[in-house]
Amino acid sequence: MSKGYGVTEIYVPEGSKFVGRTIAEIRAEEHDINVLTLYRGRKVIPNPRRDRVLEANDKLLCFGKLEVMRGMIPAKTRRRRQPDITSLPVDAVTAADVESVE
Hints:
Blueprint: E1 5-12, E2 33-40, E3 43-46, E4 58-65, H1 66-72, H2 95-101
Antiparallel strand pairs: 1-4, 2-3, 2-4
């Protein structure tokens, strides 16, 4: 796979500028993005037609330039990749627990 390209899922939230537009109208192909699959509720639509109208809560599985696809996702709906790290309570692991594992 070429550097900078990959597969990602793009979520179309309520109120998105993509709702009510076709795949052709969002100009994905012009930006080197191929829509591989459309997930609509429990329905899976592989290789959706360009005239397919997008609805709120659709998910698009796409292949293309990661930077361009990242720009298609509204900032408030992007998931953070780094998990929240919390410390274990002091009494969570004792020396006796460690010895019993060995």
